[in-house]
Structure formats: C-alpha cells, structure tokens
Amino acid sequence: MELIKNVNELSEDEALDFYENMFNALADKIRLKIINEISKSPSKYLCVCDLEEKLDLKQSKLSYHLKKLVKVNILIPEKRGTWNYYRINEEQIQVVLSEGTCCKIF
C-alpha cells in the first residue's frame, strides 16, 4: 500500500478499503505496543532485536506483526547489516488519524 496524502482524492470504495486496511493493522494490542515503543525511542528507530526484548515476543510472532504494519505503510523498514530497523511513517499516521477521519470519512 502506498502513502495516501489525501483520502478525498480516492473513490468512495477506495477510501473505505484504505481505512479498513489501516484500522485493521492498528486494531491489535501488540501492533500498538510496537508503535508505542518505536515512538518512545530517542532515535525514533528500533531494531527487531530491541523490539523482541522490550515486548518479550519471539522473532516469528514479531515479524508477523511488523509485516502487517509495513504493508499498510505505517512502519518503514531499513536494513542495517543483518538487522532490520523500523521507524514510524508520520505522514501516513497523520492521514489516518486526522481530525477529518474522526468526524467523517467523506
């Protein structure tokens, strides 16, 4: 899924699909914890190894959740050596959690 800057430019069905995918990805306590941990990081990046430790999750389970967040462009991965680091895509979060979204979809 690509970054959507203006949901109003989408058709009604496309906009509903966009919100369905976004809110589905955010509707999980583990994924919210991942986002929270990354946002609390001083560098705003966290390595998979750090997330494993902070969330006490096995790498396979963590990878599943990270993949869902990357797929909808909420997290941006960056490979550094053998580890993946993740940061929050602030632009995408702003689109999803804008005041317009809370009050109306269209």
From TrEMBL:
SMART domains: HTH_ARSR. Signal peptide: none annotated. Residues 11-106 form the HTH arsR-type domain. Keywords: DNA-binding, Transcription, Transcription regulation. InterPro entries: ArsR-like_HTH, HTH_ArsR_DNA-bd_dom, HTH_MetalResp_TranReg, WH-like_DNA-bd_sf, WH_DNA-bd_sf. SUPFAM superfamilies: Winged helix' DNA-binding domain. NCBIfam families: HTH_metalloreg (NF033788). This is Transcriptional regulator.
